[in-house]
Records
---
Amino acid sequence: MSETDAHTERDGATDVDAVVVGAGFSGLYMLHRLREQGFDVRVFEKGDDVGGTWYWNRYPGARCDSESHIYCYSFDEEIRQEWEWSERYPEQPEILSYLQFVADRLDLRRDIAFETEVTGATYDADAATWAVETADGERVTARFFIGAMGCLSEPFRPDFDGLDDFEGDWYHTARWPDEGVDLADEHVGVVGTGSTGIQFISETGGEADHLTVFQRTPNYAVPARNRPLEDDEYEEIRANYDEIWERARDSRLGMPFEHDHYSAASLSEEEIRETLEDRWQQGGFRFLHAFEPGHVLTNAEVNAVISEFIREKLRAKVDDPETAEKLVPTDHPYGAKRPPMDYNDYYRTYNRDDVSLVDVSDDGEPIERVTADGIRTTAGEYELDVLVYATGFDAMTGALLAIDIEGRDGLTLAEKWDAGPRTYLGLMTRGFPNLFTITGPQSPSVLTNMPLSIEQHVEWIADCIAYMDEHGHDAIEPTEAAETQWVTNTNMLADNMLFSEADSWYRGDNIPGKTSVFTPFPGGLDMYRDICDRVAGDDYDGFEFDQVADAPLAGQ
Ligand code: FAD
Ligand code: NA7
């Protein structure tokens, strides 16, 4: 008997209390939390193990830009004391091991169906339940349907003509084979110079016979300054963990770093540059914390000084002035696109004879097609044995909308969000009762250190479900007014920042045909948490509850 059959036998009304999609940071904690509250939970995961992002992204150089001691769960004292990170920034295999360790420790795997893709979910308003369908035809009913499918989990590959003709091998970084790819002696081409491309290029430059980088937009990569974590340093982190988490929770980005000055507006350019120089040496997201990060992204003059400071640093690393100019971003302000980190002297990679840069922007030589032998641009053909797509994701909504979700009155989520996502708090959307989204659109998600945002969402959802049971509510959804106000507020905050000065995946601009709308909540994790707490404390202000005759008994 499968585990799902066992669930079905145990409970006549619905198969389980909650279906959760995804077994990354979000799904694992959601499962644990609801199980602790006595709920019967079923998790479906496409991959054959836990890990999410860190299961799929196995490309050379894959690493997390959040510092390791805060890129983990804070909720379990034993786990956080027991696990020890080896470096300041964790590599993909180490994060994957961490999530496997958590799954083992909390005995999570027994409620996860691996290699099972959720393809559809339909709401039954009479019973206030969801019927969830998987690719292999399984159908499971549940009171709650919880999306933990990740906001950077649906890979995007541009549809270049001719890929079928290509006689070499091609890979997307987010689906890199576990056994690795031998790049030695090969002519390798990589499309994309976002965070992933930059990690991949600096890790593999010198490994291949020749590496050709096809760059559409240059980026501001700040040195990460990675290093092993010394024992005494780790002891200090452990000893102060409570305070570190407290500071991280109370910050805009979910990171416990102090800024030197709230605002740079009252400082001279000289003082700003001194501060930046110090932060440049500290590296990573601590550079962004030289000033209050929100301020960096609202004050165009200050941002211009910071952007120019970075440009000068980058130019100085590249021997050939023409290549340097191609690598230095001038089209967008620092931070308007996701700022990447430089782990391996990325810019100096271009000083090698076996690495070359092709500008495929509209002002350069755009890619025309893939051919049998490589890539053809408007200026010529580049011969390749291996083609690597480091072309990112259909971010924020891609994985959610890949599921055919039908809410009340036959409305599909794809229809409702055709002109951009509409949510209340990024947690729920009207017309889809009892559907919660972890790190959903219009929540802080990708603008923060995500494990902390995930914990906040999971705990809020679990508390909300407990509240519903206490009060005998079967269904919950936002009111029209609350949702409209939340969308308007999010847009207003974003409009007052510099995000509109870049085409970015924050706005869906990387996906042909997708409506361009800024999607994460940009007000900061601290402000967001306060709002969510107030809403919950106010008997879920902005939500409406329903009682339904045919609903399964609460908590069964
Ligand atoms: P995911 O880890 O994406 O897990 C979602 C899971 O859902 C996946 O395993 C997927 O297979 C599964 N799934 C999706 N759809 C379905 C379906 N229909 N049926 C069944 N299963 C499904 N965040 C940071 O805070 N700091 C960083 O420095 C950072 N670096 C990153 C670097 C990379 C290369 C990437 C891709 C992301 C990075 N992130 C970073 C964001 C990262 O995604 C989050 O930190 C976190 O891992 C998200 O966890 P999650 O569980 O919400 O989603
Ligand atoms: P990104 O940041 O979306 O980067 C994708 C890159 O691919 C970026 O340089 C794109 O250029 C480029 N791209 C995409 N489509 C094309 C086409 N058609 N032609 C040429 N170049 C193209 O994805 P990442 O994986 O690097 O990072 C995503 C996040 O996940 C980030 O937070 C990581 O930490 C994890 P563009 O800038 O759009 O001009």
---
Amino acid sequence: MNNTDNFTPYTAPKFTSEESTQRAQDLYTYMDQRRSVREFSDRPVSREVIENLIKTASSAPSGAHKQPWTFCAVSSPEIKAKIREAAEKEEYENYHGRMSEDWLDDLKQFGTNWKKEFLTISPWLIVVFKKAYDVNEDGSKAKNYYVNESVGLAAGFLLAAIHNAGLVSLTHTPSPMNFLQKVLDRPANERPFLLIPVGYPADDAQVPVLERKTLEEMAIFY
Ligand code: IYR
């Protein structure tokens, strides 16, 4: 069946078809309540929670199981302030000329602007880096595969884990993001992928009224 002896039986839980039907429905109902939130509380979240969220993210599949990612979890107020300052500088330029009129128009419904208070209010920032390649012990380069797909999947697992813990997040992409490599002192093979504030929502947090596509609009069965 396979040409390696390093295999082991697959032992994930098994469910009846009724249980599968219920679980699929339940997870959809729960995940459909996830929203990107821009108004955070400063209520603390323990490091233990963040560690488990990151371990869940790292359970995602990846090209040749290279796990081409690094998660930087920032709770230091000094580092968060540095990140906010650099992000706002870039975003100011984006909102004052670098983004097209069409783009600004598409964003109107979200009420975003160059100010990013959430970067210092949320208790944690998780900065996801993709590893374009790995570095062997002798300093030579080792290839990674399907890096964007792999890190995108891990980020998806992370957002689901955050929601499962009753926390909120925002997939934030200040652009360009290379300042994160400098502020967090990451090596040249790591490139910032997403900046994700994590925490509890502010008591009075609001989110825009959005509709999700219906199944008919986004799925085709053959
Ligand atoms: N990065 C900017 C602009 C922005 C772009 C998209 I596409 C969004 O979905 C939301 C915002 C910002 O964070 O404000």
